[in-house]
Design a protein that fits this description.
The chain is an alpha+beta fold. It has helices at 36-47, 66-74, 128-140, 235-249; strands at 84-92, 97-103, 114-115, 117-120, 147-152, 156-157, 163-172, 186-193, 202-210, 213-225, 230-233, 258-260. It has a domain at 35-47 and 60-198: Alpha-Beta Complex (Nucleoside Triphosphate Pyrophosphohydrolase). It contains four helices and twelve strands; from the N terminus they run H-H-E-E-E-E-H-E-E-E-E-E-E-E-H-E. Strands 1, 4, 5, 6 and 7 form a five-stranded mixed sheet that branches. Strands 9, 10, 11 and 12 form a four-stranded antiparallel sheet that branches.
Length: 261
């Protein structure tokens, strides 16, 4: 079993723990392997002057606060550093899968929800990649040596107002069976077939308490299974996957949060 508190794991030159300047994203193109076209598409997005932070829709957003929407809009003219980074990890196998987790139910935020591995940036972090790799090791025991960078997606805003940078990477098939959930943070690890994000998400309805009133929230979602039952991939995690489908594969899905009494 991996030692989830071990901070002495080998660090490559690319992933040093100290650096004079944080590197949010760097030029990256994989020139071979099955993810080379995806890597090229992500690189082309940045070469064409892609947005660093995706704006949030006002017209079809009844869940995210006005302050969060305003913060995302004000960031369009700046280049903020990410508050947190997540690893969009795709298995390098004949039928690729996405690494997802179900967060522990005792956490203060997003308890019990589906998420990528990832977490907040520390002052000592050298890059978005190092943040994502550190968190992947802490949460599921994924060693960085099994991770190969594919590219970066634009930052998106979380419901709490954090700028989140998705780091897209492949992981070696040999590392998949050895992943173990850190029970302090993760209740379960599961895999979503990568091809699912290339088909439109379903319109999913769930009960949500907003303030003191309970609503039915309608939003796009993909459905997965962690072995213990159906898991709903929605919210920021699903928005990131939708953006990956759009930039990487030209699949555009309308996005919304609609509250109904």
């Amino acid at each position: 079993m991996p030692n989830f508190t071990d901070t002495t794991a080998p660090i490559t030159d690319q992933l040093t723990t100290q650096a004079p300047k944080f590197i949010d994203r760097e030029a990256c193109v994989c020139d071979d392997g099955q993810f080379a076209p995806l890597s090229q598409a992500l690189s082309d997005y940045w070469q064409a002057g892609g947005q660093e932070v995706l704006p949030l829709s006002k017209g079809d957003n009844q869940l995210l606060s006005a302050d969060v929407v305003a913060k995302s809009e004000s960031a369009q003219n700046t280049a903020p550093l990410p508050d947190a980074c997540v690893l969009v990890a795709i298995s390098d196998e004949p039928v690729p899968r996405l690494l997802l987790t179900r967060r522990a139910v005792n956490l203060n935020s997003h308890a019990g929800e589906v998420s990528f591995v990832g977490g907040k940036r520390d002052d000592a972090d050298a890059s978005s990649l190092s943040v994502a790799c550190r968190e992947a090791f802490e949460e599921v025991g994924l060693n960085q040596h099994h991770i190969s960078l594919i590219g970066y997606l634009p930052m998106q805003m979380s419901r709490s107002g954090l700028f989140v940078r998705p780091v897209v990477a492949s992981i070696e098939q040999s590392a998949m069976d050895g992943l173990i959930a850190n029970q302090d943070e993760i209740d379960a690890i599961f895999w979503l077939n990568f091809e699912q994000i290339l088909t439109p998400p379903v319109d999913f309805a769930m009960s949500r308490l907003v303030g003191t009133q309970r609503f039915t929230l309608h939003t796009p979602a993909w459905l997965g299974d962690d072995g213990a039952g159906e898991q709903v991939v929605w919210g920021l995690t699903a928005r990131i996957l939708a953006n990956l489908a759009e930039i990487g594969y030209g699949q555009v899905y309308p996005w919304y949060y609609r509250l109904r009494v």
